[in-house]
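Notes from the 1:1 (GR / supervisor)

We went over the backlog. Supervisor wanted to see one worked example end to end before approving the batch request, so GR pasted a single chain during the call. The sequence is below; no edits were made to it. Supervisor asked that the structure be written out right there so they could see what the output format looks like.
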Amino acid sequence: MNPRDPSRPRAQAAFTLVELLVAIAILAIVTVLAWRGLDQVTRARDAIIEFLGEERATTQFFDQFHYDAEGVVTDSAVNDPPVQLAANELLLVRHLYPPGAAPRLQVVRYRLEGERLVRYASLPLATLGAVHAALGANPETDANWSSYTLAAPLAAARMRVWLPGTGWTDREDDVLAATQALRAAPNLSASVATPATRTVTGFEVSLQGKNMRSPLTRIVLVGG
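Structure output shown during the call:
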């Protein structure tokens, strides 16, 4: 056997064209699969973040609404009904206790504007005349109102009130009829201790965010 000539270059192994094409195809498939996996993880993360944001906003809304409902005045405290319904809107007249100041009244409006649920609040009101003016004012054009978006974006929202003897309703006509019936009822003697009368004794609120499969519903008593 002839010894190899050390001056001859050693043969180098190389990929064939077919092997290169196969390697490129495998690399492309792995890249596509990795991108799809990363895209799914990113979408899932974004969905979780949006859901947690909706849940936080919904919880904040229910806390604020419960606080407002606890302070709703009785029917005898104002000449107008302290709870009123309108198209995509709920109005409340509530007690307000500013720090270091005398108790006041406040008109609060919960208004559904597209996919947003906005809370409008008037300034502290010292007279019934100011309360009646606030009930008829437009908070979007009146500088004496503050506003804050409590829940957005919403897929659905519903607000109803409970009328003793009638049940749940979202019709203002039902509230007005119950108010008139309450006022027409005979008054008991002033010497008899009776509980404060209310036309509306409860609220039912349902909210559904865009990432929620079903709405969240809460029932809140008026006046605590």
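Supervisor's comment: Residues 28 and 34 are 10 Å apart (CA to CA).
Batch request approved.
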